[in-house]
Write a structure and sequence with these properties.
Blueprint lengths: L9 E12 L2 E12 L3 E6 L5 H8 L7 E6 L2 E2 L5 H8 L2 E4 L11 H12 L4 H14 L16 H12 L6 E5 L7 H18 L2 E5 L3 H7 L2 E6 L2 E6 L1 H4 L5 H8 L1 H15 L10 H4 L3
Parallel strand pairs: 3-8, 3-9, 6-7, 7-8
Antiparallel strand pairs: 1-2, 1-4, 4-5, 9-10
Helix pairs in contact: 3-4, 3-5, 4-5, 7-10
Bound molecules: adenosine-5'-triphosphate and magnesium ion.
């Protein structure tokens, strides 16, 4: 678990957020904090308001009441120029990639640099190639169009674009959804590496219990408009709250927990031959 002392201030502070669509109440008082260099996960049933909360954190939507501060800036009182400069400090990997189909991977990754920096084309290509390599894609993938990529490659290309402007904060919507187990395992490692190498703060929405057990420092369970439990997976697994129990006691939750306990006894090797538990240096 990351240090949560005042020396490690909150990068995101959500306080008393309420959101409704017509008479449908989605959030009825959400409170949570995400700390610097933390890998934080948001979980909850379908329709519990995870994506809506994410959209509120990245200025795509406003809550009805309450406050959200990101990187020390109160999103309720933000003017356009400040909003733009704040947007440049985070990267977002959308669930379905969100890449432009008419651009190659190189062009997609270079786009934020072209739009927001005064760098010349050669520099932009160089940086885009570096970001693409960082996500584990071969250089020739840069010449391809999104439609030519597998699901795993699309996720990586989308991540490379999210990293284009060296963000401090990264939002990942279902980073492993639809991937085969080996590709999902690679994504686990990539997320840990990004935090270790660059001290990135990472907020992810996921249903992937393996990703949660292997990678997340803390997890918030959203249900009935509120955070029902927050803590490490080990801490959450001890809570009595019914929404939290539902999350752990379903067949998939039990299987993931049992696997984690088995791994603790005999650490599983990941594809690079390193015991997975060794990556989790808390
Ligand atoms: N723009 C909108 N207009 C009306 N209702 C909306 C809108 N956006 C979201 N909702 C509703 O708000 C609720 C929460 O949606 P949200 O997408 O945040 O859920 P979620 O937790 O991300 O679910 P999932 O796991 O299925 O992605 C849902 O009932 C959804 O129908
Ligand atoms: Mg969603």
């Amino acid at each position: 678990m990351q240090n949560q002392s005042p020396a490690n201030p909150a990068v995101i502070e959500i306080s008393k957020v309420t959101t409704r669509f017509a008479d449908h109440v989605v959030h009825s008082g959400v409170d949570l904090k995400v700390h610097r260099a933390e890998i934080f996960a948001l979980v909850g049933g379908s329709g519990s308001g995870k994506s809506t909360l994410l959209r509120e954190m990245i200025l795509l939507q406003r809550p009805d009441t309450g406050s959200i501060k990101v990187l020390g800036v109160d999103l309720n009182h933000i003017a356009d120029p400040a909003a733009l400069s704040l947007r440049l400090r985070w990267g977002v990997m959308f669930q379905h990639g969100g890449l432009f189909g008419s651009l190659t991977v190189n062009e997609n990754v270079g786009l934020p640099l072209r739009e927001h920096t005064g760098l010349n084309g050669a520099w932009i290509n160089e940086i885009a190639a570096w970001k693409i390599a960082m996500t584990g894609l071969e250089p020739e993938v840069g010449e391809k169009y999104p439609v030519e990529l597998s699901g795993g490659m699309l996720k990586r290309a989308s991540l490379a674009r999210a990293l284009a402007l060296d963000p401090e904060l990264l939002f990942l919507d279902e980073p492993t959804a639809g991937l085969d187990p080996e590709s999902a395992d690679d994504v686990d490692q990539l997320i840990l590496k990004l935090r270790e190498m660059f001290g990135l703060t990472i907020v992810m929405i996921t249903h992937d219990l393996d990703l949660l057990w292997q990678v997340a420092d803390r997890v918030a369970v959203l249900a009935e408009g509120k955070v029902q439990g927050i803590g490490s997976m080990a801490e959450l697994s001890q809570l009595d709250n019914p929404a939290v129990r539902k999350f752990f006691d379903g067949p998939r939750g039990r299987a993931a927990h049992e696997q984690k306990q088995n791994e603790a006894q005999t650490p599983a090797k990941n594809s690079s031959g390193i015991a997975r538990s060794a990556w989790k240096q808390k």
